[in-house]
């Protein structure tokens, strides 16, 4: 089955918004074995929108649109979809009722515009919107293949533009519809890894990727991390889920040491949940990352139960004041050294009285590197209390990273991920 | 002049990459008065690419492509552009020479693939690539308007896919070419604001926006900030620049109090440069932002000259230990209060011995709010030394923010921007 994704909205053509809906839909459709052939974007113009829907369906079975479902004059996706697919808008009383009760709950007044949202194509399948007021829908038409005499069906599925409404509607309502359409139940999972590049990951997994049609297995790189997406389509959900789980077990044999989640969770969430579930308290001492580790960990709601503090000691004076790093250590080995990283991690753990202390010191760049200590050199320290590591008086580990990359942002981000990795592997 | 943007690459259709090139090109083309009518994406397939170029030119004067210019078998944009526009690839000796010297500088071996990159359409205008090896180019064709008998010219401009190469090539080579094509010199600037929403901004600026054709003026919202882009196209660069500057002066009359940059710079850069140029040292005390302020400020290279430390005191104990916040204050007013914010800012300034101390404490959410202290409530403290404010023993200010927004990420980001705003307005 071949699909096109059509984004409707003049603001996209102005470059006001990055089109993340299309990225999301592309992944999810590929996951379930639907080939995405084209992306299109068109403005809020009836003639061009109609023409673009026809273009989209030129050699695809289905076009999924986002945007233009709202109640204002700019919004015309419903009308044009009807025009192209040969249907008309009628009042759907059940939708009207659900919008009315939604407005009531928000103590808002029902306007003509709200009523207009209950107008939907007469023979459509409705997708309810539980994050907003504009419902989505799917509509089909029969087209005659030229000459052959046989009919072919084509579909349009129209979803709202706001990403939160769109993704929710897609997962809850569009997915089951696509399952019916493609006659199968679809399950996918995402394995997240750290410490291996995308091309290495692909090479290592080649025996699994090669010749595999179901489950499908594909690698993705983003922000210095690589993930593996595994998807299966079977006649029952249980069968698909167990096929995915089997493939994950196989993948673990090849890349087990790099995996930190098989549920698509991000590193701060995985480490944060691990610490919270085991009630292990943590403090951090940061230098080159400037607070990015603390900022990432505190993205996790509820983390205050275990996260005590992060001391961002940018100057040498701050490292001595706050973390009791010795002046001799800084003088002899420098601020970017194994010795300083170790003293920082120990210093913050003892000061905060937490179970673990993690530290980072490095040269993020783009300047400030030397022959001996190049840009990209980073040391991560991890100090563990007796209760965590079992050693009397605890112990402190250090990891050296030497990437020779000049990019400040990438080096900082990689350093933070390395801190999470260091905790994940050793606690 | 009407334009389409065509992205070439199967990885985009898989959802592996977010299409930021299209956002960039859309803005830049709109800036200079070229109407972007459509976005298209197609995979690395010769037949579909050719068809898509024809579709793009159906009712546009120019199509700008990105991607598919590399040296591998997947890359076919050059060949297909020639096919559609009626030209052929020939060896460009000057390009070959520049690639050879580039490879020599990197001590890399010249391969057949590198040589292939010097093959370009015979009658194209070449865009040199000084960030990579694949050159770009523009090519035209004449089309007969049906019936009228008069000729119309159409253009294709092919740029490389990697954003760094594409943006550099666009600014250095494509812009001047577009200026020739549209017969005018183009200048644009971006005003960045904080503290006003997009719809308010638009309403306030309406007298300037309404009926204005040159300079054009448009508002954009992104990540809790709003910016205003002003562009002018005139017969000389000086004339365009002075038209833009005049419009900026007018805009200042309406929104002066919200502006922090008229050069499109981000808040951390503006504040960081201000502190560095005046040699004002700074320390921070963060709670709900978890380190995000320090992380943002230390994104600015060279900031170590003035940034001393940021103490992320998540627990009450950490606030008392690190910042000398009084136990009574925490007990009487709570951690999220004006009093605590003030003691945090004073505490970190005195401890670090810096000229200013900035603090933040709040309830980021999504949970943890009460009737009295709802999610979204944030206090920002700013403590200034005598040398900065002129008052004996210095002074400390506090700002209360009460946004009633449940979104943790938005609240944290807004709190960080408010800290920068507080410094920018008061130092």
Structural key phrases:
alpha/beta; homodimer; elongated; 427 residues; 17 strands; 3 domains; Maf protein; Alpha-Beta Plaits; Molybdenum Cofactor Biosythetic Enzyme, Chain A
Description:
Chain A has 3 domains: 181 residues, 3-Layer(aba) Sandwich (Molybdenum Cofactor Biosythetic Enzyme, Chain A); 77 residues, Alpha-Beta Plaits; 153 residues, Alpha-Beta Complex (Maf protein). In chain A, a hairpin with an 8-residue loop joins strand 6 and strand 7. The relative contact order of chain A is 0.08. Chain A contains 16 helices and 17 strands. Chain A is of the alpha/beta class and 427 residues long. Chain A has a 6-stranded mixed β-sheet with strand order 2-1-3-8-7-6, sandwiched between helices. Chain A has a 5-stranded mixed β-sheet with strand order 14-13-15-16-17, with helices on both faces. A 4-stranded antiparallel β-sheet of chain A has the order 10-11-9-12. The radius of gyration of chain A is 27 Å and the shape is elongated. Strand 14 of chain A pairs antiparallel with strand 14 of chain B, so a sheet runs across the interface.
Secondary structure layout plus pairing:
The structure is a homodimer of 427-residue chains.
Chain A: E1 2-8, H1 10-13, H2 20-31, E2 35-42, H3 46-56, E3 62-66, H4 77-85, E4 89-91, H5 93-105, H6 112-116, E5 119-121, E6 125-127, E7 136-144, E8 151-159, H7 163-182, E9 185-193, H8 198-209, E10 216-222, E11 225-234, H9 237-255, E12 259-261, H10 267-278, E13 282-286, H11 292-297, E14 307-313, H12 316-323, H13 327-333, H14 338-352, E15 356-362, E16 377-384, H15 386-389, E17 395-402, H16 408-426
Parallel strand pairs in A: 1-2, 1-3, 3-8, 13-14, 13-15
Antiparallel strand pairs in A: 4-5, 6-7, 7-8, 9-11, 9-12, 10-11, 15-16, 16-17
């Amino acid at each position: 089955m071949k699909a096109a994704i059509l984004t409707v909205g003049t603001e996209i053509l102005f470059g006001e918004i990055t089109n993340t809906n299309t990225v999301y839909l592309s992944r999810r459709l590929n996951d379930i074995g639907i080939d995405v052939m084209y992306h299109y974007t068109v403005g809020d113009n009836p003639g061009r929108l109609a023409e673009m829907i026809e273009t989209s369906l030129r050699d695809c079975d289905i076009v999924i649109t986002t945007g233009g479902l709202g109640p204002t004059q700019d919004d015309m996706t419903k009308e044009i979809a009807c025009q192209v697919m040969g249907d008309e808008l009628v009042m759907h009383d059940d939708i009207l009722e659900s919008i009315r009760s939604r407005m009531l709950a928000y103590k808002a007044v029902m306007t003509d515009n709200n009523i207009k949202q209950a107008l939907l194509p007469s023979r459509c399948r409705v997708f309810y919107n539980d994050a907003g007021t504009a419902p989505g829908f799917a509509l089909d038409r029969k087209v005659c293949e030229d000459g052959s005499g046989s009919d072919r069906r084509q579909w349009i599925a129209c979803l709202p533009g706001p990403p939160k409404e769109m993704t929710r509607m897609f997962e809850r309502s569009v997915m089951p519809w696509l399952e019916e359409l493609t006659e199968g139940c679809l399950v996918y999972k995402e394995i997240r890894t750290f410490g291996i590049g995308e091309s290495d990951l692909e090479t290592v997994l080649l025996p699994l990727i090669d010749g595999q049609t179901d489950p499908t297995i594909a690698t993705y790189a983003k922000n210095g991390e690589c993930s593996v997406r595994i998807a299966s389509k079977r006649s029952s959900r249980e069968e698909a889920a167990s096929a995915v789980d089997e493939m994950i077990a196989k993948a673990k044999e090849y890349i087990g040491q790099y995996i930190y989640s098989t549920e698509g969770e991000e590193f701060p969430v995985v480490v944060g949940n691990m610490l919270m579930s085991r009630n292990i308290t943590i403090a951090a001492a940061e230098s080159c990352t400037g607070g990015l580790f603390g900022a990432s960990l505190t993205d996790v709601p509820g983390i205050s139960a275990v996260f005590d503090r992060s001391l961002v000691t940018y100057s040498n004076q701050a490292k001595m004041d706050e973390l009791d790093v010795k002046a001799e250590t800084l003088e002899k080995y420098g601020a970017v050294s194994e010795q300083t990283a170790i003293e920082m991690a120990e210093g913050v753990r003892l000061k905060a009285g937490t179970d673990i202390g993690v530290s980072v010191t490095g040269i993020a760049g783009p300047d400030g590197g030397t022959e001996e200590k190049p840009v990209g050199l980073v040391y991560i320290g991890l100090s563990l209390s007796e209760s965590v590591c079992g050693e009397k008086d605890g112990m402190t580990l250090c990891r050296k990273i030497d990437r020779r990359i000049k990019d400040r942002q990438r080096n900082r981000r990689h350093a933070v991920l390395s801190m999470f990795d260091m905790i994940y592997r050793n606690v």
